[in-house]
Amino acid sequence: MTARRAPRRPDVTTVEIVGGPEAIEVSLHDADPAWADRYREHERRIRQVLPGPETGIEHIGSTAVPGLAAKPIIDVLVTVEDITAEEDYLDQLLAAGYELRVREPGHRLVRTPARDAHVHVYEHGAPAVDEYRLLRDHLRADAADRALYTETKRALLDRQWDDMNDYADAKTEVITAIKARARAARGR
Fold first, then answer.
1. pTM score, two decimals?
2. CATH fold of 27-186, please?
């Protein structure tokens, strides 16, 4: 792994949610093998506008875990050298048809207008990158935690959500416990 460079400029210090909170209705779908194909379509689309070897692209989130029920939203992780250098990636992603949704310290989120794909942009080596991988890889390997996570998501279906972030926050306790078991299983 290469050493992290100093950012070109200070990062944003506040959270900007473009368009404000959005009420959502959460629907879970049984695992669908087509999600991997949809991810690969986004990977190709992103690679066309960010072709350099310094850009990492991975499938994360529930749709990246075979056998896990999920909202049918493909989550893509993109890693770049400098999150503050938006001119190196953001305009290109917008030109590829994504819309800016979140700008916050260390993270940008763009999504499709249909809201069926979320692209999370972080710097290489950002702690959140390892957290996404830890959860994804553990859920791929551990059937019991995969079932627990599915049950947790199903239990939240009957609630009204004023914003997607509220739904995500409601899963935090279970996700934290699963990641703790994942760390223990890895011996760290």
1. 0.89
2. Beta Polymerase; domain 2 (3.30.460)
